TrEMBL record:
Gene3D superfamilies: 1.10.1660.10. It comes from the Bacteria. GO terms for molecular function: DNA binding; DNA-binding transcription factor activity. Keywords: DNA-binding. PANTHER family: HTH MERR-TYPE DOMAIN-CONTAINING PROTEIN, REDOX-CYCLING DRUG-SENSING TRANSCRIPTIONAL ACTIVATOR SOXR. Pfam families: MerR_1 (PF13411). Residues 38-90 form the HTH merR-type domain. InterPro entries: DNA-bd_dom_put_sf, MerR-type_HTH_dom, MerR_fam. This is Transcriptional regulator, MerR family. It comes from Brachybacterium nesterenkovii.
């Protein structure tokens, strides 16, 4: 189980949390969790918090446990919501389900990364590269230029680029990879955005989930096509 999960304090018996308190409690493990995501999971009947007399959502300890299971099943097992719902209907959040941990062999394109905030020297240090590789990645559009701090996604890019460069594939050789990723992202957004309505938090959450699912499917297709191509003589 993730370390952050073991530190997650459960609501006292009978206590109820507001939506803001739930987001705060789960922020360490799920930094991208949002109001719209919770509204969407409720609309899809994955969670069902009680309502106060004034209409505010109130989450019990069982609601939070169920929510954590849903989020981990999405993130770590890449289960679609339909599969998660079927599992919950059949098994509930049983002992095995409550200990869902990261069993994926590789992170998908929407995998949640441990947040970091690095300056340029820190990025070089963490990725164990020199400044020249960072400059090359900037030159060929794989890292943003003239920024003060870099995040987890930037670190992931640099580490992957380092591994490729060690085998002779330098950033200048990888422009087609960057271009393909940008085109795929554009396709996914073009499908998901029409389903997101600013005034409807559940619809926004649904669009976010759709982009996630499409990203994972696109990643799987790319991996399968690449494996097939590498087997060809």
């Amino acid at each position: 189980m993730p370390a952050s999960a073991s530190r997650r304090a459960a609501p006292a018996s009978g206590a109820r949390l507001s939506i803001g308190q739930v987001l705060e409690q789960l922020r360490e493990e799920f930094p991208d969790l949002s109001h719209s995501k919770l509204h969407y999971l409720e609309a899809e009947e994955l969670i069902s918090p009680e309502r106060s007399p004034s209409g505010y959502r109130k989450y019990s300890s069982a609601d939070v446990d169920r929510l954590v299971f849903v989020l981990r099943a999405q993130r770590d097992r890449f289960w679609p919501l339909k599969v998660i719902k079927e599992h919950l209907q059949e098994h509930g959040v049983d002992d095995d389900a409550a200990t869902v941990t990261s069993i994926a062999s590789r992170p998908g394109p929407t995998a949640q990364l441990q947040p970091v905030r690095l300056d340029r020297a820190g990025l070089c240090r963490e990725a164990r590269v020199d400044d020249e590789l960072i400059s090359d990645l900037e030159q060929f559009g794989m890292l943003p230029e003239s920024v003060m701090f870099y995040g987890a996604g930037d670190l992931e890019i640099v580490r992957a680029a380092k591994a490729l460069a060690e085998e002779g594939l330098h950033p200048r050789h990888l422009v087609m990879v960057r271009t393909a990723a940008q085109r795929q992202a554009h396709m996914i957004r073009s499908v998901a955005r029409p389903r997101s309505r600013p005034a409807d938090p559940a619809a926004q959450g649904g669009a976010e989930d759709l982009m996630r699912d499409l990203g994972e499917s696109m990643n799987s297709l790319h991996a399968a096509l690449l494996r097939s191509a590498l087997r060809e003589d």
